[in-house]
Specification:
Structural class: alpha/beta
Number of strands: 14
Order of helices and strands: EHEHEHEHHEHEHEEEEHEEHEHEHH
Number of helices: 12
Helix content: 25-40%
Distance between the termini: 39 Å
Radius of gyration: 19 Å
């Protein structure tokens, strides 16, 4: 069933505020879009709309965490990472406070809102903060598993969610180990690491490439930090051609993470597929096609690298 990861987040918040009186929800005037506002109907006394004041939201969340609460602070990914990087670093990560920062509408699939709302640097700037975990689930089931996981983990994190409805990769019976990579299909000596919406697009690319006699391994990477270094190194060892795909700048995100592991464990040439600059404004599926991040575009890029070699 096609469902947005932000919708799955809203489902889990409803459950959490009913089950745990310590869970509080904060938003920065985007509660309808992030889906955090759905929790207000079940615990209005623990829902706080902070207005268009993301820095204030993070500061209040820090205070609530220091008082023993478990805050989930939500906004668009661009605003709850870019506008408040210093507050997240100094007020959350440095003291190790138990705040969950949730950014929806990430990447270029936010669409028509344009470059000012298209967060393509958020993984990079969050990954670099000491003590802050970073997750990018690909579908509703992985999103729910991430929320359950961070509820059990004491410490700050950033969860990257999307605007668009996406196909299920997993089902409700999947037992997740969020900190581990998921090998979704096995191919022959060509491995593609993907995260978020790009998991679905890479699976589509795999079907296109299969018809051309190219059989790829597809790996879902939900936990960007900490990353499953051992699992990634094993994939690097088993394969000769390595690709990464992300709806994010190729600098500092998943591709850079895989390159770092390759340098430290198993030297491999890594082809990074993603954004090389700002996008235009437009319908999200058209944008993915324009920047070769839909199934057809990913298949074309992978085939091009292999043919050129």
């Amino acid at each position: 069933m096609a469902r947005a990861t932000r919708e799955a987040y809203g489902d889990e918040l409803i459950r959490l505020v009913q089950e745990n009186p310590k869970v509080v929800v904060l938003d920065a005037d985007l509660a309808g879009s992030t889906n955090s506002g759905r929790a207000a109907a079940y615990a209005p006394e623990r829902f706080f709309d902070m207005g268009i004041a993301e820095a204030d939201m993070i500061g209040v969340a820090a205070g609530l965490a220091a008082s023993g609460y478990i805050p989930f602070a939500s906004s668009f990914a661009m605003f709850c990472t870019g506008r408040v990087w210093e507050q997240i670093r100094n007020s959350l990560a440095y003291p190790g406070l138990n705040v969950k920062v949730v950014g929806s509408h990430s990447g270029i699939s936010v669409g028509e809102d344009g470059v000012t709302h298209q967060a393509i640097e958020d993984i990079a700037i969050m990954r670099d903060i000491t003590g802050l975990a970073v997750y990018a689930p690909c579908d509703q089931w992985e999103t729910k598993a991430v929320i359950r996981h961070v509820m059990e983990e004491d410490g700050p994190c950033y969860i990257r969610l999307g605007r668009a409805k996406v196909d299920d990769v997993f089902d409700e019976n999947k037992e997740f180990d969020i900190r581990k990579i998921n090998v979704l299909r096995r191919g022959s000596k060509i491995a593609v690491f993907a995260t978020g919406l790009m998991v679905q697009m890479t699976l589509k690319a795999a079907e296109i490439l299969k018809e051309k006699g190219i059989d790829i391994t597809v790996i879902d990477v939900c936990s960007i930090k900490p990353i499953d270094k051992e699992g990634v190194a094993e994939i690097l060892e088993q394969n000769e051609e390595i690709f990464t795909v992300e709806e994010h700048s190729i600098t500092g995100g998943l591709g850079s993470t895989i390159c770092e592991i390759a340098c430290e464990t198993t030297p491999r040439l890594v082809h990074r597929l993603g954004m090389f600059g700002f996008a235009e404004s437009g319908e999200w599926q058209q944008l993915l096609h324009e920047y070769k991040l839909d199934g057809e575009g990913i298949a074309e890029q992978i085939e091009g690298y292999l043919t050129y070699k």
